Batch of 2 targets.
Target 1
Amino acid sequence: KDSLGALGSRIGLRIGNAVNDDKLTTDATYTAILAGQFTTVTAENAMKWEVVEPSRGVNDFAAADRLVTFAAAHRQLVRGHTLLWHNQIPGWLTSGVTDGSISRSELRTILKRHVTTEVTHFKGKIWQWDVANEFFTDSTPSTINPNDFWVANLGEGIIADVFRWARAADPRALLFYNDYNIAGEDGTNAKADAVHAWAKGLKRQGVPIDGIGDQGHLDTQYPFPTTMTANLRRYEAAGFKVAITEADVRTFVDNATDQNPTDALALMAQPYEFSQMLKACLAVRACISFTVWGVNDRDSWIPGFFTDPLQGYATLHDVHLQPKPAFTTLQQDL
Ligand code: XIL
């Protein structure tokens, strides 16, 4: 009864994790942690375009369906991730655009079909959709990235169109814009300012955008962003729900076997930053979910992505799937 999920439920906050659906049939410990501790799940990859439309016009929702079924069996709500992003789009699509065999108007039609097909497939089963992901630059000032694949080919307005298509296909799902460093994590607040102004503008024009997801990928080499609560409150004041969607706290690794730092201060930094991030969400009424990105350090994306120098140790359970100090800290905070 003192699982993270149960503790969150008492205060109306869903606690989640990102799921690799293969593990649900092959790893009982992984599955027990997921079922026992969490009240919302996100597909780590299974709902991304390259997975759901491996060849043109041929959809495969099998992996995502397995996760949705698992979630229903365990009374978990599902975050859909993600409809419009520059990464993990099918090879047939990018090569068609590059070699000119897919024209811009055809690209728009293909995108509309993708969004409508996927949102319709999961209609009634998705709590929050990450409709659009990672469109803003990390520069100061931050803007919508003109070189983004979608913006370069179809213009900025395509983002609003995708929100409209998603709303039409499933009017009850909460539609989110999702990005990293949009609650002050970059130390400048530039990206937070830009996303706030843009989202508020879209809302004013009647674009159906309900929420802002802050990914929450933190790094112990930087201080905790003290403007996080203020940034979440600013989104709330503009009428948005907010969510922490991909929380992890990476640390330089000097023990590659265990994805583990050995330095005592590094070990303390991780629970501290997780705790501060949860508290930022707890301090904001509009913050409806706190999702961790990865069930354990063995399966986390961090060591595969941040390799030079190697980083890891980013989740709540270690490589042996044992709970870490960060886990107990969140339990106490809840
Ligand atoms: C990552 C997954 O965790 C990896 O398994 C995959 O290889 C690449 O994508 N921001 C996002 C997520 O929005 O979709 C990314 O997930 C991590 C960064």
Target 2
Amino acid sequence: MTRNDELFDRARNVIPGGVNSPVRAFGSVGGTPLFLQSARGAYVTDADGREYVDLVASWGPALIGHTHPQVVDAVKAAAEKGLSFGAPTEGEVQLAGVIADRVQAAGLSPVEEVRLVSTGTEATMTAIRLARGVTGRDLLVKFDGNYHGHSDGLLAAAGSGVATLALPGTAGVPAGVAAETLVVPYGDLEAVREVIAAYGDRIAAIIVEGAPANMGVVEPPYGFNADLAEMAHGAGALLILDEVLTGFRVHRAGAWGLQVENGPAYEPDIITFGKVVGGGMPLAALGGKRAIMEHLAPTGPVYQAGTLSGNPLSVAAGLATLELATDEVYAHINAAADTVTSALTSALAAEGVVHAIPRVGSLFGLAFFDRAPANYEIAKMQEAHRYPPFFHAMLAGGVNLPPSVYEAWFLTAAHDDEALGRIVDVLPAAAKAAASA
Ligand code: PMP
């Protein structure tokens, strides 16, 4: 019995399913999850002392690589001064300023004020409450297969037909709460038009991922988010752009920055951030124009609070990470993504495995389908059974992939030639395993 097996047995006795977040349990790939004991640069080490090239990056935060000395030093220095004050600090002011400064492109500055929270779930939950408070309306439009954290109204599943109110997507969500959400297929502007026609004056906001990365990666149709902004505004509703995953990862100004530099300009009303912005510590944020953000308490009537909000250690990690996230870092990660995606497609093609590698900036995923899935319905049609053997062959070869075919692969600034070489070397065996599944 390995130490991972031993720990998983113990864990299942004291933690539901042995994990503190479901996807960690290897449910869709089978086997024992790796219990990690340390991470450095592009590598993670499990409880058995085995080292892997990591393509999970803590599900996104580790943009500049794990445990970067400058980030660790910043956190240590902050810890020496106090773990939590429950009072405002200078660091929070700096971080809010850095976020606002970075999220600028094409002459637009959609973020004037920022509220710091602790998780992406809190950021989107607050964004929705804010949108409701600003508009005085209740309904929310979201896209099937887009994930925005686990608050009740965002765990709604599509009902039957397009313009119908949603059903609970999980046990424990009241039907009445789910019914405040309208779920439409991703990329389908006609469906959005229909819900607006049916419910327009009741819709507070449309929420969408900057670029979807929780149903596999999906490249938004050209100008899609700009069209959504226009449709939302035409209906008197807000556009909430969820950049918890894409923010400061796919571009220095997030998916929004990437999109307005390469397509029509648009301004979301609220943008949510997480993952990279906290550099691996619990921190997330929402930002927008002053006129909207000041509806939050204490300036406005929309209540929101947090004992650990703007925690000084998290703020220190976020500041150090964003300082290190230079244009060179994005160029490096993009080039690393070129290397991995071309080796991946060669290996799978050599084995005759039908596949697509959808990509947005340096963010990419793998789909066992003959084209990049455009929405969740299509993503679910792929030959997903090929992923578990592929995943386990990579793991056996020392590469840690996300344990689900519907997750993105995350590269970091620390993925150098050696780390990339290790990935490239293992791909042919994994492609063979996928082919024989
Ligand atoms: N929004 C998006 C787009 C996400 O990818 C996630 C998490 N993967 C969240 C929100 C929720 O963030 P958290 O897990 O920090 O609550």
